[in-house]
TrEMBL record:
It comes from the Bacteria. Its EC number is 2.3.1.191. Homotrimer. This is UDP-3-O-acylglucosamine N-acyltransferase.
C-alpha cells in the first residue's frame, strides 16, 4: 500500500513541510531510512539522523526546527511519538480489512455470522457456531461446535478453538494458539495405569483479551476456565483447567499455571513463572521472572524466587548468597582461631 505525505498528514491532522505528493510504502527507523520509507523523530538522542536519513517522509513534533539542510519531507504534528503510534494502528486496521469467505472452507449447519466476516481458505466452522460482526478468521483455522464469538475479533492462521468456547468482543488470538483443549485430568489406578477423567467444561474469554502464539488454554473439568476482561497473554503460556485470570492481568511467555489456580486483577507476571494448583493470587501482584509459586500470594505483593518470597527479602538474601563462599571461609577462620 502506498500513501502520500498529504494523505498521512490528513490522517494525523498534521502539516506537510516539503513535497505533499511524496509517496511511502514501508516504515523504518530514522537511522535506517531508505527511499519510499516513513519514519519519525521523537527522541532527541536521534536528532542528528534527521539530517542524514534517506527516508522519504519523517513525522516530527511542531517544536522541531531544522538547523541544517534536510532532504526528507516533514509532517509536523503535536506529538510525533503519539502520532506515529496512531498511524501504526491505522495501518494495522487497513491491513486487516478483509472480508468474504474463501474457498475451500467449511461452514457447518446452523451457523450464524454478522457483517464483514472474513473466513480464510482451508478453515472449518462447526455446527451451531455464532459469530459477531467484523470477525476475521485467517486460513487453516478450526472453530468447533457450539462456539460463540463476539464482534471485532481476529484469529490469525492456524488457531484452534475447541467446542463450547465463548469469546467476547475485541479479542485477538495469534497463530498456533489452542483454546478449549482437554484439561490434564487422569486418575491413578491400582495396576499403575491412569484413567482419563472426562473434561466436560469450557473456556470463557471476556472482552479485549489478546492471546499470544502457541498459548494453550484448557477447558474446565466442570464449569469454566475464565480469562477476564483486558487480560494479555504472551506466547507459549499454559493455562490449565478451571484457572481464572483476573481483569487486566498481563503474563509473559513460558509461564505455566496449574489447575484451579485463581489469579487476581491487574497482575504483572514475568516469563517462565510456574504456579502450583489450587492457589489464590491477589490483586495488583507482581511476580518476577522464573519464580516458582507454591503458596497463596496476597494483594499488592511483589515476589521472586523458587519457592518465591518477598522481593525485598529475596534481593537481600541474594547478596548473601553471592558471598556465601567468603562467608564460609570467614567462619572457618573464626573456628580455627577460637579452636572450635
Amino acid at each position: 500500500m502506498k500513501f502520500t505525505a498529504a494523505q498521512i498528514a490528513g490522517i494525523l491532522q498534521g502539516e506537510v513541510i516539503g513535497n505533499p505528493n511524496a509517496e511511502v510504502y514501508r516504515l523504518s527507523k530514522i537511522e535506517e531510512g531508505t527511499e519510499g520509507s516513513l519514519t519519525f523523530l521523537a527522541n532527541p538522542k536521534y536528532l542528528n539522523f534527521i539530517y542524514s536519513t534517506q527516508a522519504t517522509v519523517t513525522i516530527v513534533s511542531n517544536t522541531f526546527e531544522p538547523e541544517q539542510e534536510i532532504t526528507t519531507t516533514l509532517i509536523k504534528v503535536d506529538d510525533a511519538y503519539e502520532s506515529f503510534s496512531k498511524l501504526l494502528e491505522y495501518y494495522n486496521q487497513v491491513k486487516l480489512m478483509k472480508s468474504g469467505i474463501e474457498e475451500p472452507s467449511v461452514i457447518s449447519e446452523n451457523v450464524s455470522y454478522g457483517t464483514d466476516l472474513y473466513l480464510g481458505s482451508f478453515s472449518y466452522v462447526g455446527k451451531n457456531v455464532i459469530i459477531g460482526n467484523n470477525v476475521k478468521i485467517y486460513p487453516n483455522s478450526f472453530i468447533g461446535d457450539n462456539v460463540t464469538i463476539g464482534d471485532n475479533c481476529v484469529f490469525f492462521a492456524g488457531v484452534r478453538i475447541y467446542s463450547e468456547t465463548v469469546i467476547g468482543n475485541n479479542c485477538t488470538v495469534h497463530s498456533g494458539a489452542i483454546i478449549g483443549s482437554d484439561g490434564f485430568g487422569f486418575a491413578p489406578q491400582e495396576d499403575g495405569t491412569f484413567k482419563k477423567i472426562p473434561q466436560i467444561g469450557n473456556v470463557i474469554i471476556e472482552n479485549d483479551v489478546e492471546i499470544g502464539s502457541c498459548t494453550t488454554i484448557d477447558r474446565a473439568t466442570l464449569g469454566s476456565t475464565f480469562i477476564r476482561n483486558g487480560v494479555k497473554l504472551d506466547n507459549h503460556i499454559q493455562v490449565a483447567h478451571n484457572v481464572e485470570i483476573g481483569e487486566n492481568t498481563v503474563i509473559a511467555a513460558q509461564t505455566g499455571i496449574a489447575g484451579s489456580t485463581k489469579i487476581g486483577k491487574h497482575g504483572m507476571i514475568g516469563g517462565q513463572v510456574g504456579f502450583a494448583g489450587h492457589l489464590v493470587i491477589g490483586d495488583n501482584v507482581k511476580i518476577q521472572a522464573q519464580s516458582g509459586i507454591g503458596k497463596n500470594v496476597g494483594d499488592d505483593e511483589v515476589v521472586q524466587g523458587s519457592p518465591a518470597f518477598n522481593f525485598g527479602d529475596f534481593a537481600k538474601s541474594y547478596v548473601h548468597f553471592k558471598n556465601l563462599p567468603k562467608i564460609v571461609s570467614d567462619l572457618e577462620e573464626i573456628k580455627k582461631n577460637n579452636n572450635i
